[in-house]
Amino acid sequence: MNSTRTARRRERTDILDFAAVVRSGGFVPIRKLTILLVCTGNVCRSPAAEFLLADLLGPAAKKFTIRSAGTKAVAKQPIDPIICNLLRRRGIETIHFTSRGLDLRMLESADLILTASTNHRAAVARLLPAALHKTLTLKQLARYAPFILESGDRPPDVGERIPWLLAALPRARARARRDDDDSIADPRGKSRRHYEAAIEELHHACARIATLLGGGVATEHEPVAVGAGSRS
Question: What is the pTM of this model?
Answer without folding.
Answer: 0.81
